[in-house]
Each structure stands twice: as C-alpha cells, then as structure tokens.
C-alpha cells in the first residue's frame, strides 16, 4: 500500500500553534497548565 501524507510538517506546526493558543485562551494564560505525554508502549 503506498504511503499517504495526511498533513505536511507545516500543517502540523500550524495545528499545534492553534491548539496552544486555544489552551492559553481558555485558561486565561499558561500559569498552572501542564501537558503530559505518554510514549507508545511506555
């Protein structure tokens, strides 16, 4: 099956920037905001 690009690196960067702005807007700043990630099979 051929590879299919869903989002380019530029599109991913833009989406992440928008998500970050929304988090800051909804929380009235970044004070006290914690982001947690989990590695696959981690």
UniProtKB/TrEMBL annotation:
Annotated Gene3D superfamilies: 3.40.50.2020
InterPro entries per the UniProt record, alphabetical: PRTase-like
Protein name: Phosphoribosyltransferase domain-containing protein
Organism: marine sediment metagenome
């Amino acid at each position: 099956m051929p590879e299919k690009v869903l989002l380019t690196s530029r599109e991913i960067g833009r989406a992440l920037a928008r998500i970050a702005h929304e988090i800051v807007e909804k929380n009235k700043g970044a004070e006290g905001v914690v982001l947690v990630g989990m590695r696959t099979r981690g």
